[in-house]
Structure to design on (274 residues):
């Protein structure tokens, strides 16, 4: 394991910086501060994050925000409120990025999710393989 | 394969582990009556592979005695349910470790590959490897 320790130390710094982005996605994140906390220069920080995660810190932040937005759009929250809750300042830029990354507008995505949830609530057995449903006693076996 | 089952001691806790720690997506979460729930999750890059987090309850699947035996076996770490792969094991290990995932084997170079082992919140263990 000795030969892994320098790498592990480096990776730990990168991972903690990335986790900071992941958990503070709704805040205004300053990459300079983020790089400082990981003891990297901004340029080196962007380079190592890209090397390890195959994404720049900015692209990772966009990804995290859109994934979180998908979760919130599955609730009753309006698309505009979701936009601000995940850290965007403009509904237009949120909608544009969401559509670019998912192929749907936030509103269209929300309608589909709400329809699916209503279907799960009304007819859950449509979503459960019959063998499991039988074993669980959720269907009557004749 | 599109469905696989993992028996868990508590579905709420398993939800937290698989979704918030491992980063899996919820596929279906359906209440099925008092105390019953159909809960499946998917690894982010495999949206068609549903992992059913099955609670171990007395009923048609388990008698009271068998359910207790199964719960004991799961909590003792008897079952290994699969192998996951990631792009960079050291990074994924550090990330999961920081989120509180318990590893029973740190990343280790074996003759068959680079591998770590971790447990879920119930005691089920998984291998975590690195893609070549």
């Amino acid at each position: 394991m000795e030969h892994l320790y320098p790498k592990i130390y480096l990776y730990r710094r990168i991972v903690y910086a990335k986790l900071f982005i992941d958990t503070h996605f709704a805040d205004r994140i300053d990459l300079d501060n983020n790089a400082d906390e990981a003891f990297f220069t901004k340029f080196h920080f962007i380079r190592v994050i890209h090397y390890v995660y195959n994404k720049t810190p900015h692209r990772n932040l966009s990804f995290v925000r859109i994934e979180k937005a998908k979760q919130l759009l599955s609730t009753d929250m309006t698309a505009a409120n979701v936009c601000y809750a995940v850290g965007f300042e403009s509904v237009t830029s949120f909608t544009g990025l969401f559509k670019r990354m998912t192929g749907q507008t936030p509103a269209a995505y929300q309608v589909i999710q709400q329809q699916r949830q209503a279907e799960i609530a009304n007819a859950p057995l449509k979503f459960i393989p019959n063998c499991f449903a039988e074993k669980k006693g959720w269907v009557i076996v004749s | 394969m599109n469905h696989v089952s993992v028996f868990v001691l508590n579905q709420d806790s398993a939800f937290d582990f698989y979704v918030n720690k491992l980063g899996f997506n919820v596929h279906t979460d359906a209440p099925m009556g008092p105390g019953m729930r159909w809960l499946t999750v998917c690894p982010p890059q495999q949206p068609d592979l549903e992992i059913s987090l099955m609670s171990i309850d007395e009923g048609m699947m388990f008698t009271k005695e068998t359910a207790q035996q199964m719960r004991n076996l799961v909590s003792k770490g008897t079952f290994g349910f699969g192998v996951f792969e990631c792009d960079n094991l050291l990074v994924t290990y550090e990330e999961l470790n920081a989120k509180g995932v318990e590893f029973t084997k740190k990343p280790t170079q074996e003759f068959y590959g680079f591998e770590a082992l971790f447990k879920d919140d119930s005691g089920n263990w998984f291998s975590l490897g690195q893609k070549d």
User: Anything to note?
Assistant: Chain A touches chain B at residues 1, 4, 7-8, 11-12, 14-16, 18-19, 52-54, 120-121, 124, 127-129, 132, 134-138 (CB under 8 Å). The CA atoms of residues 71 and 115 of chain A lie 15 Å apart. Chain A has a mean pLDDT of 87. The two ends of chain A are 59 Å apart (CA to CA).
